[in-house]
Write a structure and sequence with these properties.
Blueprint (H helix, E strand, L loop, with lengths): L2 H41 L3 H11 L9 H23 L1 H23 L4 H13 L1
C-alpha cells in the first residue's frame, strides 16, 4: 500500500477511532464513580448522609439555561461568519453568518419572553397577581 492511499484510509479511521475512544473513556470514568458510590453505600448507615453523598456525584446543572446569554454568543458567532464571508470567503459565508445571527436574535428574544430563573418566575407571578 503506497502513501497516497494510506493517508485517506488513516483519515477515515481517525474519524471512527476518536468517537469510539471517547465513548470508552466516558464509560470507564462513570464506572469508577459508580463503584465509589457502591462502596460508600456499603459502609454508611445513615440514609441522609448517603443521599448527601449521592448529590456530590450528580453532574447536572442546578441553574436553568440562560437563553439571553446563549443568544448573544450566537449573534456574535453569526457576525464573525458574516464578516469572514464579507472579507474573504464570499456570499455563502455571508448567508450562513446572517442565518446564525438571526437564530441568535430569536434565542435572545426567547430568553426575554420566557423567564427562567426562580427569581424571575416569582417576579412574573407577582406582577400577574397584582393585575
Amino acid at each position: 500500500m503506497n502513501v497516497e492511499t494510506l493517508i485517506p484510509v488513516l483519515g477515515i479511521l481517525t474519524g471512527i477511532i476518536i468517537p469510539i475512544a471517547v465513548f470508552i473513556w466516558q464509560y470507564y470514568d462513570a464506572k469508577g464513580k459508580r463503584d465509589a458510590v457502591v462502596e460508600i453505600a456499603k459502609h454508611i448507615g445513615d440514609q441522609d448522609k448517603l443521599e448527601e453523598l449521592l448529590t456530590l456525584f450528580d453532574e447536572r446543572k442546578s441553574e436553568p439555561i440562560d437563553y439571553r446569554r446563549g443568544g448573544v454568543i450566537t449573534i456574535f458567532v453569526g457576525a464573525g461568519l458574516f464578516f469572514l464571508g464579507l472579507f474573504f470567503l464570499g456570499n455563502i459565508f455571508k448567508g450562513i453568518g446572517a442565518l446564525v445571527g438571526l437564530i441568535g436574535v430569536g434565542t435572545m428574544i426567547a430568553g426575554y419572553l420566557y423567564p427562567n430563573t426562580e427569581k424571575e418566575l416569582t417576579n412574573a407571578v407577582d406582577q400577574f397577581e397584582k393585575k
